[in-house]
């Protein structure tokens, strides 16, 4: 939205409102596929609401002081977080691809390398009640984790969510997988479920009531999401867990490049640095082109996977 010229804080509020509505539809699909953990969601949302309240306050405070600086601040946060998460996830994907077994697995058995990090094992060793059980259909006997670190993760995601105008999935995904030790499949469905509460609360209480939601634009985005959610959710059943991580890394790095190339123009407009206007504008256009080419390719791959496996998916 910012690449299309929408002011940062309005893009944040609008996208959160759209994501909130879209997540309701996505949750219905993933619940049927068995990818949703209600226990993880409850603990997560308690923390995320606190974080979203703080994040919304920070964003509005900066905007009221200097609207141009607000755009630069949001872009800077995007560059820092997407760069770190994207390269970390890419490294993880490449490692998992190396250790993945050559043996072919059944399309619907959740095959592929699904490992738990050393950090996640340490977090799961914390036995402070209440305990949350999950991944019963992924690992024999399932896994468990204390609700307290889950709430902490929720706070971090809620804070970033309210500042960046996202549902938090791009950050919640690695935190669930690498810190809490949740499988990729359960993480995808659970994240969409928590977004209903996190994005709904933040979009309404932190942005809509202050006039920072473009409702017509949000409805347009929602209409386009109707088919995308159905197709995307079903495709998770015909790809390996480490493939989902690889696609996640690709999408995050695309966003990183987009905001990185837009940053010189934003910082120049805010008076922080001095950059030739033509150079800054050219860099911004390159970032936009790279982003849509990568994300367009990603979407094309998802559609192709859906078409190729249509007969199998009809049985799900």
Topology:
Layout: H1 8-32, H2 38-65, H3 67-99, H4 118-124, E1 131-134, E2 143-146, H5 147-164, H6 169-180, H7 184-207, H8 215-235, H9 241-269, H10 277-308, H11 310-313
Antiparallel strand pairs: 1-2
Structure characterization notes:
- The protein is mainly alpha-helical.
- 74% of the residues lie in helices and 3% in strands.
- It has eleven helices and two strands, in the order ααααββααααααα.
- The chain has helices at residues 8-32, 38-65, 67-99, 118-124, 147-164, 169-180, 184-207, 215-235, 241-269, 277-308, 310-313, and strands at 131-134, 143-146.
- Strands 1-2 form a two-stranded antiparallel ribbon.
What key attributes describe this structure?
single chain; mainly alpha; 11 helices; 2 strands; 74% helix
Strand content: under 5%
The DSSP helix count reads 11
Unreliable parts: 102-113
What spatial order of strands do you see in the largest sheet? 1-2
Q: H/E order of the elements?
A: HHHHEEHHHHHHH
Got a strand count? 2
Main sheet characteristics? 2 strands, antiparallel
Task: Please give the radius of gyration in angstroms.
Answer: 20 Å
Overall 3D geometry?
globular
| Structural class by SSE content | mainly alpha
N-to-C CA distance: 34 Å
What percentage of residues falls in helices of 4 or more residues? over 70%
The average pLDDT is: 83
């Amino acid at each position: 939205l910012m690449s299309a010229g929408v002011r940062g804080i309005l893009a944040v509020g609008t996208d959160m409102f759209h994501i909130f509505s879209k997540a309701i539809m996505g949750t219905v699909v993933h619940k049927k596929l068995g990818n949703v953990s209600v226990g993880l969601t409850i603990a997560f949302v308690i923390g995320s609401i606190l974080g979203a309240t703080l994040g919304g306050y920070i964003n509005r405070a900066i905007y009221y002081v200097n609207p141009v600086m607000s755009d630069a601040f949001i872009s800077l946060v995007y560059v820092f977080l997407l760069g770190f998460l994207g390269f970390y996830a890419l490294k993880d994907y490449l490692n998992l691809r190396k250790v993945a077994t050559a043996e072919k697995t059944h399309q619907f058995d959740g095959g592929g390398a699904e490992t738990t990090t050393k950090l996640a094992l340490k977090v799961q060793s914390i036995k402070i009640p209440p305990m949350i059980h999950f991944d019963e259909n992924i690992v024999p006997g399932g896994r468990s984790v204390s609700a307290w670190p889950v709430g902490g993760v929720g706070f971090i995601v809620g804070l970033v969510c309210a500042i960046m105008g996202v549902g938090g999935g791009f950050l919640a995904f690695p935190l669930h997988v690498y810190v809490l030790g949740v499988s990729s499949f359960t993480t995808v469905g659970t994240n969409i479920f928590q977004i209903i509460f996190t994005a709904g609360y933040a979009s309404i209480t932190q942005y809509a009531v202050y006039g920072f939601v473009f409702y017509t634009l949000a409805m347009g985005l929602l209409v386009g999401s109707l088919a995308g959610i159905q197709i995307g959710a079903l495709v998770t059943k015909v790809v390996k867990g480490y493939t989902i991580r690889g696609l996640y890394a690709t999408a995050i790095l695309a966003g990183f490049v987009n905001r990185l190339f837009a940053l010189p123009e934003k910082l120049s407009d805010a008076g922080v640095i001095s950059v030739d206007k033509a150079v800054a504008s050219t860099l911004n256009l390159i970032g936009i082109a790279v982003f849509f080419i990568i994300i367009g390719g990603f979407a094309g791959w998802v559609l192709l996977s859906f078409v190729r496996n249509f007969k199998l998916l009809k049985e799900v």
